[in-house]
């Protein structure tokens, strides 16, 4: 024990013997759970990118009756914990409306609406950062507002928004773990179950961290590639 | 009203908040006229130009293109403009900006094709051929595939002129097209505009280039504090102005000569 740090009780502090073998023996349980994690991620991200655009456009609308509800939505979902939103959709919605969503649907809905709120703000910022000269040049050609958005403003804005969307998407991938609270058998739920049955929290969650990394990192690389492609096209 | 009036404004007012920039402009532009609009900064010349394609919404007054009124009169005396109507107007009244405003994510060729395809619904092949023709006309056939970031200011402005020309506009507006260019690049852009004047196209040009205005224009307007102070042939307005204000303005440009 020479040189080893001593805990207050006088016992030697050392790492317990790690038993990764036990975790690897059951790795198929964790890998299977990845499917639900990826499904939640894909659904919420797609909803965020699609719904967020509509919501972001509503935020910058001239008409107040469009802009204000959009703003209320964004502020509600951004300024409350996603965990609470999830619990609300799973436990409170049936009480209020009589609709009991399955756990997965409740989690997907909460994560999607949350992603919409964040993405709306990314779209809003990106669109507003496009110089007014671009709008004017399009209008001077006779382009309507929608066509201008689609052909000029969004392509320019999206280039600037890629890093922000990547950031949000990565955050979202990890946020899917809150679904474990309502018993969705995704990666984190399965890991907690496994770890408490086998008393191997350190090994289990270390492996889980590596799995998350392996899931998310290719996405990050793809977004870097996208940024490089945009940079190469001059804009 | 005579048949060859292509653009007419009547009692045009424009205010930004409490600041009235245009104080009742009446103007008839005849087909084929080349009008240079002069005036000191703040005189309202750019605002007037931007009201002609309703990039700025006039506060009061009416606008007529080929005799047809733009917008519908509201009971309170104001004018309501529908977006579709404005888009149609703008497709017929081209504009070249001081800051070029090329679309940076498109090549020179794509910039010149964009309005043709998405507004005029021309076929891609046709738009492409016309775009190449107009790029050649401004001397940039070899830059068709270049992105704006790779072009000099003068080249960007020439692409912008080609972009406006490709819409085959009845009236072409130039808003200080050389004001943000390095002095040695001004000549190439003015050269292109001068060449256009031979095509007989109706053009309005806001500029500080008095010499160019003299040779280019068939008619010169001098704006002062939101009103047209002088309106006549270049010979008269630039060489023997009627108004003291105009004389003082011109003197500032001729104070230093080599």
Termini separation of chain A: 63 Å
Mean pLDDT of chain A: 90
How would you name the oligomeric state of the polypeptide chains in this document?
A: heterodimer
> What coarse outline of chain A follows from CA principal-axis ratios?
flat
Helix content of chain A: over 70%
- Low-confidence runs of chain B: none
The pair of chains with the biggest contact is: A-B, 22 and 32 residues
For the sheet with most strands of chain A, the description reads: none
Q: Which residue ranges of chain A are poorly predicted, with pLDDT under 50 across at least 5 consecutive positions?
A: 1-7
Overview of this structure, please?
- The complex is a heterodimer of chains A (about 240) and B (about 260).
- In chain A, α2 (about 25-60) packs antiparallel against α8 and α4 packs across α5.
- Chain A is built from nine helices and no strands.
- Chain A has about 240 residues and is mainly alpha-helical.
- Chain B has nine helices and twelve strands.
- Chain B has helices at about 45-50, 85-90, 110-120, 125-135, 155-165, 185-195, 210-215, 235-240, 245-255; strands spanning about 5-15, 20-30, 35-40, 60-65, 70, 70-75, 80, 95, 170-175, 200-205, 220-225, 225-230.
- In chain B, α4 packs across α5 (about 155-165).
- Chain B is globular and about 50 Å long.
- The relative contact order of chain B is 0.16.
- Classes of the chains: A mainly alpha (about 240), B alpha/beta (about 260).
Overview in brief:
The complex is a heterodimer of chains A (235) and B (258). Chain A is mainly alpha-helical.
List the helices and strands and how they pair.
The complex is a heterodimer of chains A (235) and B (258).
Chain A: H1 20-25, H2 27-59, H3 64-78, H4 82-97, H5 103-128, H6 132-140, H7 145-175, H8 187-198, H9 201-232
Helix pairs in contact in A: 2-3, 2-5, 2-8, 3-5, 4-5, 5-7, 6-7, 7-9, 8-9
Chain B: E1 5-16, E2 19-30, E3 34-38, H1 45-52, E4 60-65, E5 68-70, E6 72-73, E7 79-80, H2 83-92, E8 93-96, H3 108-118, H4 124-137, H5 153-165, E9 171-175, H6 183-197, E10 202-206, H7 210-216, E11 219-224, E12 227-232, H8 234-239, H9 244-254
Helix pairs in contact in B: 3-4, 3-5, 4-5, 5-6
